[in-house]
Specification:
Blueprint lengths: L7 H25 L8 E5 L5 H9 L4 E4 L2 H10 L6 E4 L8 H7 L2 E5 L2 H14 L3 E6 L6 H4 L12 H10 L3 E7 L8 H18 L5 E3 L6 H6 L4 E4 L1 H4 L8
This protein binds pyridoxal-5'-phosphate (PLP).
Length: 245
């Protein structure tokens, strides 16, 4: 194709290979877990990678794109307008960024406090949009003291209250739960705790079916423990440079 940046074709082939390999991993892991691979959504986390990678992914049939920083996400969403993508905000979110995120995000995975629910609801209404919100649960051991620690997330015992707040707020809908596996300790046990929280919430809100868990390194385990949405960066796009993202 004329006008392509140098290396564009090679990049496209690389991302296509990665996507193919990823889908195969998801297929095998789903089969092992007795689940249908079609029921699993891959969210491609494109943080630190340029909008042209998002375009390549879209060309390859990936519709769900994840970002963890508002400034970067807003710019990419703007550059990729018209591609019919669903934007997932997966990073820690300050209340003062709610206005911006409400303009482009379709799903916010990192909702971990009532104040943020209110801000997102108000900003979504201002923008005439509706955001699906996931309750981010902290699975870090010792999260009794570490709530809103470096990676965010509400203590499991407070997750239902955040879910109630989302369900009660107009402009936002309750999609389910999200977590990042703990850096230490047993990830299987952690994903089990997330599943238990998800089940409690789903008993009350049957539409809250999403369990966003699993990244490049632990997607098999997450799938074995009920994940419906995987957030995948490295396995699709390669290692990110250190000190960013
Ligand atoms: C970066 C990021 C991911 C993707 O992680 P990989 O290990 O690169 O697949 C998933 N979830 C969150 C919240 C992230 O910030």
């Amino acid at each position: 194709m004329s006008g392509e940046p140098v290396g564009e074709g090679a990049r496209r082939r690389r991302v296509a290979e990665n996507l193919h390999a990823l889908r195969e991993r998801v297929r095998v892991a789903s089969e092992k877990a007795g689940r249908a691979a079609d029921d699993v959504t891959i969210v491609a986390v494109t943080k630190t990678y340029p909008a042209r990678d998002v375009r390549i992914l879209a060309d390859l049939g990936v519709r769900d794109i994840g970002e963890n920083r508002d400034q970067e996400a807003a710019a990419k969403a703007e550059q990729c307008r018209g591609l019919d993508l669903r934007w997932h905000f997966v990073g820690q979110l300050q209340t003062n960024k709610a206005r911006s995120v409400a303009r482009y995000a379709d799903v916010v995975h990192s909702v971990d406090r009532v104040r943020l629910v209110r801000a997102l609801g108000a900003r979504a209404r201002d923008a005439g949009r509706e955001l699906s919100c996931l309750v981010q649960v902290s699975l870090d051991p010792g999260s009794d003291v570490g709530v809103l620690g470096p990676r965010g997330g509400t203590h499991p015992s407070d997750a239902a209250a955040v879910a109630d707040a989302i369900a009660a707020e107009s402009g936002v809908t309750l999609g389910g739960v999200m977590a990042v596996a703990p850096r230490e300790g047993d990830p299987a046990g952690a994903f089990d705790r997330l599943y238990a929280v998800a089940s409690t919430i789903r008993d009350r809100y049957p539409q809250a079916t999403v369990i966003s868990a699993g990244m490049s390194g632990d997607l098999e385990m997450a799938l074995a423990h009920g994940a419906t949405h995987l957030r995948i960066g490295t396995a699709l796009l390669g290692e990110r440079s250190p000190n960013v993202g």
